[in-house]
Design goal:
rod-shaped
């Protein structure tokens, strides 16, 4: 604070108060600026430290994402090759069975001979004819 001097007889007391207030404001402003500058410097230092850490983290994250992108791309390429191989196999199968599609089935027998099972299956089926038996 400034030296307090009593108002002189030729000085107006109001002028003295104004002068003292002005000095006080200047002093407080200077102290406030000094304090603000210190705070600003602390904030700048903190931001620099935090941003450098954040930048390093972001760079690491970017590198990891790039590795993941490369991995996914290689997997997509592998799956695409497998699909192309499967499609080629399907095309071979389709080309192989295509001629079979246009062939007609064998003509059905119109009057098939009846099938007999068992011992009678070997006998002729002519009506009125008997096999001779010994005796």
């Amino acid at each position: 604070m400034s030296d307090v001097t009593a108002p002189s007889t030729d000085q107006n007391p109001t002028d003295f108060v104004e002068l003292e207030l002005s000095n006080l404001v200047k002093h407080e402003t200077a102290r406030s600026i000094s304090s603000t500058e210190k705070n600003a410097e602390r904030i700048r230092t903190s931001l620099a430290r935090l941003s450098s850490t954040s930048i390093e983290d972001l760079e690491a994250l970017t590198a990891e994402l790039k590795r993941m992108q490369d991995f996914v791309k290689s997997e997509v390429d592998g799956v695409q090759r497998q699909i192309e191989g499967a499609l080629a196999g399907i095309n071979i199968i389709v080309e192989t069975i295509a001629p079979w599609k246009h062939t007609s089935p064998p003509a059905a027998v119109t009057n098939p001979r009846p099938f007999r099972a068992g011992p009678a299956g070997t006998m002729e089926s002519t009506p009125g004819r008997r096999l001779a038996t010994g005796g």
